[in-house]
Amino acid sequence: MSDYEQIINNLFERHQSVQTAGFSADSYKPGLDRIRELDRRAGSPSSRLRCIHVAGTNGKGSVCSLLAASLAGNGYRVGLFTSPHLLDFRERIKIVEEGGYEMIPRESVVEFLDRFDSPELSFFEITTGMAFWYFDREQVDIAVIEVGLGGLLDSTNIIVPELCVVTSIGLDHCALLGDTRALIAGQKAGIFKGGVPAVVGEMDDETAPVFEAAAAEAHCPLFFAPDFPVILSEAKDLCCQKEHLVEKGDNNRLDAESPFQPSTPSDKVEPLEEVLAQMDLQGECQAENLRTVLCALDLLGEEPNVDALCRAAAMTGLRGRWEAVRRSPLTIADIGHNPAALKGNFARLGEMMASGTYDKLLIVYGVMADKDFAGILPLMPQEAEYFFAAPDTPRALPASVILSEAKDLLPNAQACDSVADAVSKASALATPQSLIYIGGSTFVVADYLKLQEV
């Protein structure tokens, strides 16, 4: 075992992560006092970063990657902080440029932990502090920062960004964030800052009033992405005219009184659907994510880089978002794990089967014990053959329990010893014309990807 691997193992042993321990008192420590002190000890790097702050239930990772890719395609050196990781801890902290991405070097991880690790910190606080420190040291032009959980009390919320983004709102982590979408929206809106424009990716009667009230209280301009035209245009006039910019320190920020004006189309436009068809990020939610990104880029005064948007997954190293990991039989891996995300995924699988292209649907599925499996179960395609498995984490619901709860609705199912066993059994029944789906949890996808590396 290398020194780096030993240090990472020690990190996970000293600080329980949400990935392994769930949202226990040891792993989840809401509040900002500890991260502020860590940031101070590291030289206050967060205060020097130009940032985009991204919260939401589903779609955060895709929106962060699309933003980072487009900005990198325009020549920026972009810091990208996301979570969780699938295979390597360093996936969380990357620098993205036009030619691709680089993860934080092992030596930098070791240096930061040697200098700043402290027992009272949570795993996510250490990771967040490391990202701020590394991006500042590397002098990135701008950093795209993904919220870990919620927003208001999340460790990332010490930054004052140039733009706030909230993607979708769904029922997840209800014990911590609230049991209604309105309550959850209130937590996400906790990232709003005075004078900093905010983009919300969806608009509905339950959550829109929450965002409007939060924006009014924070005195920040608020925009809903569904209002944004569904084109990519070279003429970008949306709230980035110089007369609407006010000087605040070293950053130009939008005046809270800036009017929302749709972009003026030029002669060179690309329909949203054509861009979606070319993107290497797939999935039912990507149209909403792309529209959110276009609105965000306009507010930043940035042209969308279509080529980079189409290559966002490759440029940023994002995996597990409706990822075609194998072509024959077609095998899709997706980390969607709550009812809102899985509803779209399962519906798309149903549409693919209805096309007549595939002879059978085989689903490798696992779920964490704290997830709403009762809400997910009715969404699962009944015509599929299921291979239930518990991924390699103590948080997983045992495969035998999944089978017991699902057997009446999904009779064509079996419990497997592991994700590897489930994949092996599904593959044995597949033909070149079959469709295999691997998901239900980030951990299921991670276990599968590890098999591909062996």
Under the CATH scheme, the architecture of the largest domain is 3-Layer(aba) Sandwich
Q: Supply the number of structural domains.
A: 2
Structural class: alpha/beta
Order of strands across the main sheet: 4-3-2-5-1-6-7-8
Parts with pLDDT < 50 across at least 5 consecutive residues: 232-269
The CATH topology annotation of the largest domain reads as UDP-N-acetylmuramoyl-L-alanine:D-glutamate ligase
Helicity level: 25-40%
3D architecture notes:
With 454 residues, the protein is of the alpha/beta class. The chain has two domains: 3-316, Mur-like, catalytic domain (UDP-N-acetylmuramoyl-L-alanine:D-glutamate ligase), CATH 3.40.1190.10; 323-453, Mur ligase, C-terminal domain (Protein-Tyrosine Phosphatase, Chain A), CATH 3.90.190.20. Helices cover 37% and strands 16% of the residues. Helix 1 (3-14) packs across helix 5 and helix 3 (33-41) packs parallel to helix 6 (123-137). The longest helix is centred in the last third of the chain and has 16 residues, at 339-354. The protein is globular. The two termini are 17 Å apart. Residues 232-269 have low confidence and may be disordered.
